[in-house]
Amino acid sequence: MEEVGLEAVKERSVKGIVALTTRTFFLQLVNFVGIFLLTIYLSPSVFGIFYVVSAVISFFTYFSDIGLAAALIQKKESLTDKDLQTTFTVQQILIITLVVMIFFFSNRIAKFYNLDHASLTLLQALAFSLLLTSLKTIPSVLLERKLEFQKLIIPQVAESVVFNAVAVYLAFKGRGVESFTYAVLARSVVGLVLIYIISPWKVGLAFSKESLKRLLKFGLPYQLNSFMALIKDDLMTIFLGKVIGPAGLGYLGWSKKWAEAPLRFFMDNVIKITFPAYSRLQDNPEKLKKAVGMSLFAIFSLVLPSIIGLSVVAPVLVQIIPKYIKWEPAILSLYLFGVSAIWAAISTPLTNLLNAVGKIKTTFKFMVGWTIATWIFVPVLAIKFGYNGIALYHALMGFSGFLVIYVIKKQIDIAIIENIKGPVISSLLMGVFSYFMINLLPHNFPSVMFIIVTSIIIYFFSLSLADREKTAFALENFRKIFKRQ
C-alpha cells in the first residue's frame, strides 16, 4: 500500500480539516434541522427510548471489535493484503456472532425496560445495521491512511441526509419510535453502497496469525480504552434508563447533545485527521509539537465561543420556538454539560496524541480512573438530583483535564496556555456582549439573529487582535487550500 510522506501529511492534514469542516457544514445543518424537527414532533420519552436502545447496542458492539481498525491506521509500516483480509475476517466472525446474540436476547432486553413492539423492532434494526456498518471498515481505513477525508465525508453526508429525512418524515406522520427504525436501516444501506464506490476494495477472507498478533499489540490496549468508555458511558446509560426513566433520559440526552454539538462539529473533524497525522509524525518531535499546538488553537477557537454563545441564547430559543417549551427543564443540564464540553476540547486532543504516539497504556489509566469515578458518583447524584445531578458530575469531572495536561507536558512540552489564551479572551468578550444584549433586546427571532451575527463579528475581530500570528497562519492555510480546491 502506498504511504504518505511528511510534506503530504502536512498538506493533506490541513486540507482534510478544511474539507471536513466546510463540507460538514452542510451535514451539521442537516443534523441540526433534523434534531430540531424531531424534538418538535417527538416526546422526551421517545428520545429516551432511542438513547437507551442505542446504548444497549453500543454495549454489544464493543465485543465486535478488538481494536484492529485503529491498529491499521496507527501502524507505521505499509499495510499488506494479509493485514486487511485478516482484520476483515476476524471482524466479520465477531460481528455475526454478536448480531445473533442480540436477536436471541432482544425479547429479554425489551421486557427489562418495558419496551413495546416498536421499540423491540428498533433494537433489532440497530443490530442488523451493525453488520452493514462492519463491511465499511476496510474501505474507510484505506481512506484514513491516505488522509483523504474529503472523500470519506461523502458517504457520511449522504447517511445523515437519508437518516434525518426518513426520521423527520415518519415522525411528522406520527410513527413515533418507528421513525428511528426505518431511518437507521436506510442510513446503513446508503453508507455501505457509497463507501465501496468511493474506496473500492476487493473483499477477501484470510487469516494470518503473525499479522493478527502484530496488530493486536496496539489494538487490544486501544480496545481496552474503548471498553472503559463503554462501561463509563453506554453501560451507565443503560443503568440510568431504569433509574430516571425514558423522559429523564430524554432530557439528559437533549441537553448533552446540544451542549456537545460544537465538539461533534469542530473537534471531531480535527481529531479524525490528527490521529493518523500524528501517527505519521511520531519520529519528528518538533513537527509533532507544532501540529498539536495548532490543533488545540483550531479546536478551542471554534468550540469555546460556540458553547458560550449557545448557553446565552438557549433559554430564549426554548421559549420562542413553537412546541419547544417542553425542553425548558433541561436548560440547567445544558449549562453543566457545556462546562464539561469546554474541558473536553482540551483533554480529548491531548489523549488522542497519546494514543497516536503509542502511549495507549497512559490513556487507559485515565479511562480506568474516570470509569471508577463515574460508577461511584453518578448513581448517587442521579437518585438524589435526577438528570441534573448527572450533568453536575460531568461538569465537575471535566476539571480532571488538569491531570491530562500535567501528564502530557511530561511527555511533550506543549505550550497549552499560549495556544488557547486568544480564544479564551475573545470568547469572554463575546459572551459578556451577548449576555447584556439578550437582556436588553426583546425575546424574538430577529433579536436573537442580530445577537448571534454581531457576536460572531466581535469574536473574530477580537481574536485577530488577541492572537494575530496564529489567526493569520490559520487563515493563510485555509486560503491556500480553498484556492487549490
Give an account of the 3D structure.
The chain is mainly alpha-helical. The chain folds into 2 domains: 1-242, no CATH class; 244-485, no CATH class. The protein has 19 helices and no strands. Helix 2 crosses helix 5, helix 10 packs across helix 13 (331-356) and helix 10 (245-259) packs parallel to helix 15. The protein is globular and about 70 Å long. Residues 1-9 and 480-485 have low confidence and may be disordered.
Strands, helices and their partners?
Elements: H1 6-41, H2 44-61, H3 68-74, H4 81-112, H5 117-134, H6 137-145, H7 149-172, H8 178-198, H9 209-243, H10 245-259, H11 261-280, H12 285-320, H13 331-356, H14 360-385, H15 387-397, H16 401-411, H17 416-440, H18 445-466, H19 468-484
Helix pairs in contact: 1-7, 1-11, 2-5, 2-9, 2-10, 3-6, 3-9, 4-5, 4-9, 5-8, 7-8, 9-10, 9-14, 10-13, 10-15, 11-12, 11-13, 12-13, 12-17, 12-18, 13-15, 13-16, 14-15, 17-18, 18-19
Helix content: over 70%
Q: Could you give a short account of the major beta sheet?
A: none
Shape: globular
Number-wise, the strands total 0
Structural class computed from helices and strand pairing: mainly alpha
- The number of helical segments is 19
Rounded Rg: 22 Å
Low-confidence stretches: 1-9, 480-485
Distance between the amino and carboxyl termini: 26 Å
Mean pLDDT: 79
Content of β-strand: under 5%
- Strand and helix order: HHHHHHHHHHHHHHHHHHH
Domain count: the total is 2
